[in-house]
From TrEMBL:
Residues 631-773 form the BioF2-like acetyltransferase domain. It holds the Pfam family Acetyltransf_6. Keywords: Aminotransferase, Pyridoxal phosphate, Transferase. The lineage of its organism: Bacteria, Pseudomonadati, Bacteroidota, Flavobacteriia, Flavobacteriales. Transmembrane segments: none annotated. This is Bifunctional aminotransferase class I/II-fold pyridoxal phosphate-dependent enzyme/GNAT family N-acetyltransferase. Residues 50-394 form the Aminotransferase class I/classII large domain. Its cofactor is pyridoxal 5'-phosphate. One of its GO terms (molecular function) is transaminase activity. It comes from Zhouia spongiae. The keyword Transferase applies. InterPro entries: Acyl_CoA_acyltransferase, Aminotransferase_I/II_large, AON_synthase_class-II, BioF2-like_GNAT_dom, PyrdxlP-dep_Trfase, PyrdxlP-dep_Trfase_major, PyrdxlP-dep_Trfase_small.
Length: 806
């Protein structure tokens, strides 16, 4: 029934990146006619370069440059042939030297992304299974997802969670030949490491476990002959491990390398490896530069270079220890991450450092959770001790200023990253004159004021919120109990500038996921009803729809009120520890879009809302006459001919025997509508509605001659709330799907709802979410809606993405 418009992940990323570009921290252009590696010019300013992944500085080594230049003059700018047919004359030399580094057969690939796309489908058979670390590089995840087309199960575990990995291995062991765990050696954002030795022990315990490491950020700066972090831990490569290294980044040239100890698998991949077969090979300059770098790696010079880098890493580490800067993971890699929490704080901090003469990178969604934005600093041999110390001094000076300028605090950042708070302070000083009222019961809020600000729409006026509080408390099941939080922020004259309410309750984490995902999860929930469920702090509630936020944007201090609002969210987040905070039901082009992004919220699409705004018709004929030509045709074909099939009853109270029947009809629709997958409401909701003066029920009784029992039977019900401000709210629907299609039950309910609202003299109908296509046919305006979410991490989102179309 409900056509759900699901969020396009790329649209979300595009908006985040667009905001970051506006702030001057992404999509920059370097300037100048030459580079030394130590500095980089941006906007005509020379900045010390702390953003490179060429950690050893080999990309500036004269030997690599000379080799590349000579190869261009000798062989041209490219060798435009597939390696399947013939390889460039220098290829054999490169392969032999890289093999000498590792001691195992190698395959050279154009880059790591194409390498993964070629290797994973060749190495993984249809009888295997794949488990991804949820922070493994995007290129690995992307290649692994293609295996779902071959019915290879692909699942995900939380980062470095070996207990979760072992459970997955046990799950797959009886039905799958090999179980591949795919991870990075050194992770590119925080610089943290895979537990390589523990994984090797797990492989001994479970022989089916095979390990696939992407170690491109561990390459060259560590390990014997610069073979990387993973090799530095295991020394020799067992048959159950595939290892990716890089010939770019720290290696100083271009391309990537697969190391494969299994000769049979090596032959299979090399003979036909998808993109490895059909893609153009590395250009002569890249091959020659890689050979020159390999010579350095095969000499003792590599250890001198590694030591010089380690000295700089240790200097940076020791300098950071003297500060309170929130370093997210302390290790000996050249990658460091200073948390800022909110994106806007990250933008501010990066721009401050650039003005001081330092270039650093910003870690931002989707590479990290949106509330885990931070500054990613990389140390290379290009960096000199004096500028390393100067960078730390600049960060120590500007970090608190960036926090203050963006209305955040040190302890808020630490809590976002689960770090120990070294010095506790207030989240935010409340400006003079502002007052914040937070209540747990609507009875503590002035009724007239609430209804004036938020009560003129939907089903969340003052009286209805009393109804919700009574319905969703003191119930047996955890998902049937909600906590309510009402927030009013006032100015010095006690005028409300911002008003809203939140509920805290248990959600299904796939609530807005594609139907295909929810279907799989509901099968699992047959045994474990709380599988992939978690507490959520949400603006509004799962019962209500509409503009849940009143914000007076004519007030000169509305941005201050919003900052105070975020302050209250942070307090609630700290107290309740929800998995996610949701700000919902905003129009697609909300003026607050950039503001929410900058403060740690990511926009996602919601089902469209629908509304009939002007109910001014007199009688059915007048109403249908005002419809579009297509809608009138729809009425004549799909609604009018079926009206006589029903006895239509409108009542403000249900009989005792009707309560359970109507609840079951409502449950039918909820279970059928997996595009908006929620828990059931408590059964007492029917009785509470029946007692409430503002609720009424439109009942469709299918006449006996159309039923299987030849007796009249209620096959549809619309649960309608009569908002005192002249808004009619058909909040929920119930149907018997045995008869729904044949007798057009849903369309008849929609029509009877419009008819009833007009007869009662209501000015508009708030039709709520979902089924926009059907509601548009009967004259409703479709209003695209979005929500803004702030999750503790990206695991659930990425895991659900893995499940989609699996």
């Amino acid at each position: 029934m409900a056509k759900i418009k699901h969020n396009n992940f790329l649209d979300t990323v595009n908006e985040v990146f667009t905001d970051a570009t506006k702030q001057g921290v992404l999509h920059l252009y370097a300037e100048g006619e030459k580079f030394t590696g130590r500095k980089i010019r941006i906007h005509q300013n020379e900045l010390f370069h702390f953003g490179t992944t060429g950690y050893l500085g080999l990309e500036q080594d004269k030997r690599l440059k000379n080799a590349a230049a000579e190869a261009v003059y000798n062989y041209g700018t490219q060798f435009p042939l597939s390696k399947t047919y013939i390889s460039h004359p220098l290829y054999r030399t490169l392969e032999e030297k890289i093999k000498a580094m590792y001691g195992y057969p190698v395959i050279i690939t154009k880059n790591s992304t194409l390498g993964h796309m070629g290797v994973i489908p060749s190495a993984v058979s249809d009888h295997d299974a794949i488990i991804l670390d949820h922070q493994v590089h995007w290129s690995v995840q992307s290649a692994a997802k293609t295996m779902k087309l071959r019915s290879v199960p692909v699942e995900m575990i939380r980062h470095n969670n070996l207990d979760m990995l072992e459970e997955k291995v046990k799950k797959f062991s009886s039905k799958h030949k090999r179980i591949w765990y795919m991870a990075d050696g050194v992770y590119s954002m925080y610089g943290d490491e895979a537990p390589v030795l523990e994984l090797m022990e797990l492989g001994k315990k479970y022989p089916q476990l095979h390990l696939y490491f992407d170690d491109v950020h561990g390459m060259s700066w560590t390990g014997k002959k610069g073979t990387g972090f993973v090799m530095s831990k295991i020394k020799t490569l067992p048959q159950n491990v595939l290892l990716f290294g890089t010939l770019s980044k720290t290696f100083g040239a271009s391309g990537s390398v697969l190391v494969c100890p299994d000769k049979e698998m090596y032959h299979k991949i090399k003979t036909f490896g998808g993109p490895l077969t059909f893609s153009a090979q590395l250009d002569p300059a890249s091959i020659a530069a890689a050979i020159a770098s390999a010579d350095i790696h095969l000499s003792t010079e590599i250890y001198t270079l590694q030591y010089e880098l380690l000295e700089r890493i240790e200097l940076f580490n020791s300098s950071l220890k003297k500060t309170d800067l929130p370093l997210i993971d302390r290790n000996n890699s050249p990658v460091f991450y200073i948390g800022t929490g909110m994106p806007i704080t990250g933008y501010n901090f990066v721009n401050r450092l650039m003005k001081e003469g330092f270039f650093v990178n910003l870690g931002i969604f989707p590479a990290v959770p949106v509330k885990n934005t931070g500054v990613r600093i990389t140390i290379s041999r290009h960096n000199q001790p004096e500028e390393i110390k100067a960078l730390v001094q600049a960060m120590e000076y500007h970090y608190p200023k960036a926090l203050e300028a963006t209305y955040t605090t040190y302890d808020k950042v630490c809590r976002a990253f689960n770090l120990n708070v070294k010095h506790n302070n207030k989240l935010l000083e409340i400006p003079d004159g502002f007052q914040i009222q937070v209540e747990r019961n609507i009875s503590k809020i002035d009724k007239d004021e609430w209804d004036k600000l938020l009560g003129k729409q939907g089903a969340f006026d003052w009286e209805e919120l009393q109804f919700l509080e009574d319905t969703f408390t003191n119930n047996a099941l955890p998902e049937e109990n909600w906590d309510f939080y009402y927030i009013i922020i006032r100015d010095v004259l006690y005028r409300p500038v911002l008003t809203t309410f939140f509920t805290y309750g248990l959600w299904k984490e796939d609530m807005l996921a594609p139907v295909s995902v929810s279907e799989k999860l509901e099968n699992l929930r047959a045994k474990d009803p709380y599988y992939l469920t978690s507490p959520v702090l949400s603006m509004g509630s799962l019962f209500t729809e509409g503009d849940h936020l009143f914000l007076d944007m004519t007030h000169p201090l509305w941005p201050t009120a919003l900052h105070l609002f975020f302050h209250q969210i942070e307090l609630l987040d700290r107290k309740l520890q929800p998995s996610m905070v949701v700000l919902r039901d905003f129009k697609e082009e909300s003026k607050l879009n950039e503001f929410f992004h900058n403060h740690g919220f990511v926009k996602i699409s919601m089902p469209d809302a629908c509304m009939i705004k002007n109910l001014s018709w007199k009688g059915v004929q007048d109403y249908t006459g005002r419809l579009s030509t297509r809608s009138r045709k729809h009425y004549r074909k799909d609604i009018k001919p079926f009206t006589g099939h029903f006895n239509i009853t409108i009542t403000d109270s249900l009989k005792k025997e009707q309560l359970s029947d109507c609840y079951q009809l409502f449950e039918n629709v909820r279970k059928n509508n997996l595009g908006l997958n929620t828990f059931a409401f408590p059964q007492k909701i029917m009785q509470n509605m029946s007692r409430h003066p503002n609720w009424e029920f439109i009942l469709l009784e299918l006449k006996g001659k159309y039923t299987k029992t030849t007796k009249g039977q209620i096959v549809g019900v619309m649960f309608c709330y009569k908002n005192p401000s002249l808004s009619y709210v058909p909040a929920f629907v119930g149907m018997d799907y045995t008869y729904a299609k044949e007798h057009q039950v849903y369309r008849q309910l929609l029509f009877q709802t419009v008819k009833r609202a007009g007869e009662l003299g209501f000015k508009k109908i708030d039709f709520g979410l979902t089924a926009a296509f059907e509601k548009k046919k009967i004259g409703a305006d479709v209003i695209p809606k979005v929500a803004y979410i702030q999750a503790r991490d990206n695991y659930t989102m990425e895991m659900l993405d893995i499940m989609e179309n699996k």
